[in-house]
Each structure stands twice: as structure tokens, then as C-alpha cells.
Amino acid sequence: MARLPQLYVEATYEECFDEDGRAKYDCIVTQDNIEVKLKKGEKLPEFIDKDKAKFLAKEVYDRFHFYVDQYEHRMKVDAIIVYPDRRTRIELKKGDELLLLPVEGYVVTLIADVGNRVRTGDAFAAVTTKKGEVHYMKPPKPGTVVYIDEFTNRPNYVYYILPEE
Fold first, then answer.
1. Which is it for the CA torsion 12, 36, 38, 56, positive or negative?
2. What is the DSSP string of the chain?
3. What is the pLDDT of residue 154?
4. Nearest 5 degrees, angle CA 78-CA 147-CA 56?
5. What pLDDT digit, counting tens, does each position of 121-152 carry?
């Protein structure tokens, strides 16, 4: 079974910490150029000022699409995605625009996975029609795949791609 990326989304101090100052969930706390990763039950370090810090709480990765505006395709909150190798990560800022590319067909074969960089001419998915024709899906802009949303009723997917500047 493939490991899933970890998703951290913007939250308030009260959402991340209980009355005793212990983390309710795994979270990432950033202040200026300092970043602290806390596990559930750990206390906030004294050198972090809770009024100046930004808090990101761990969220279920499959809920990523809830943090993207489905009409404007922009991030609703700041988020960090940590990929399964636990070294590679992408930081998404509130307002970042994503490309949402639907992949629909009789048989869908995913080529690019989460964390892969796709270029304009590269195929990120293949769609086979009922007649047996194969069509390759290519992105309009180069970028990085941050999430793939799957619809279980039929082989349909939506790729969320962070375009390069």
C-alpha cells in the first residue's frame, strides 16, 4: 500500500492547543523564520509567541479539496503538503491558483502521481474509450501535482496542479 502525503492546514491557536497548552493534534508552528513540528500532547516551546505565530494543524489528506475554492480554483487557507518521503514538501499560500484538470473516460490510467512535476507536453493520464482509442491528457501549463481527487462511482479523477510561475 502506498503511503499518503501529510496535509497541514491553517488553524487558530485554540484549534491546535487545549487549555493546558498541549497540542490536540500533530501541528506545525511557524514564527518569522522558525518552524517547529509538534506531535499530539507536546507543549508549545517558550520561544514561540502565540500571538505572532501561525499554526497549521494536521488534516486528513483526502480532505484537501475542501480547502480549494471550487469556482475560482484558489486556496482558501495556507497549507503544507509533506510527501511520503517526508523530505519533499510544497507550501501553498491562501489565494494560490491551482489548475483543476478533470480526467474522465471508460478506462482511466493515471500516469503522474502526487508530487510529480508535469510539463506542457507530458501526459499525466491516459483515457481509453469504449472503442479502444487511447487519448493522452496533457496540462496547459507546467506544474506540480498536489492532489488527485477520485470519484468512486466511475473512473473519474480531478488533478490539482500547482502551476509554475
1. positive
2. -PPPPEEEEEE-HHHHB-TTSBBSS-EEEEETTEEEEE-TTPBPPTTS-TTT-EEEEEE-GGGGGGGB-TTT-BBSS-EEEE-TTSS-EEEE-TT-B-EEEEEESSEEEE-S-TT-EE-TTS-SEEEE-TTS-EEEE--SS-EEEEEEEEETTTTEEEEEEEE--
3. 66
4. 25
5. 889 999 988 888 898 999 999 999 999 888 77
In sequence order, what are the residues at sequence separation of 6 or more whose Cβ sits closer than 8 angstroms to the Cβ of residue 165?
Answer: none
Identify which of 9, 63, 17 has the alpha carbon closest to the alpha carbon of residue 39: 17
Q: Exposure pattern of 120-134 as b/e (b: 16+ CB <10 Å)?
A: eeeebbbbeeeeeee
Extract the residue ranges of the chain whose pLDDT is less than 70. 1-2, 153-155
CB 57, CB 25: distance < 8 Å: yes
**Residue 70: per-residue pLDDT:** 85
CA distances for 47 relative to 12, 22, 24, 52, 122, angstroms: 18, 15, 20, 11, 47
User: Hey, what's the cell of 109?
Assistant: 490510467
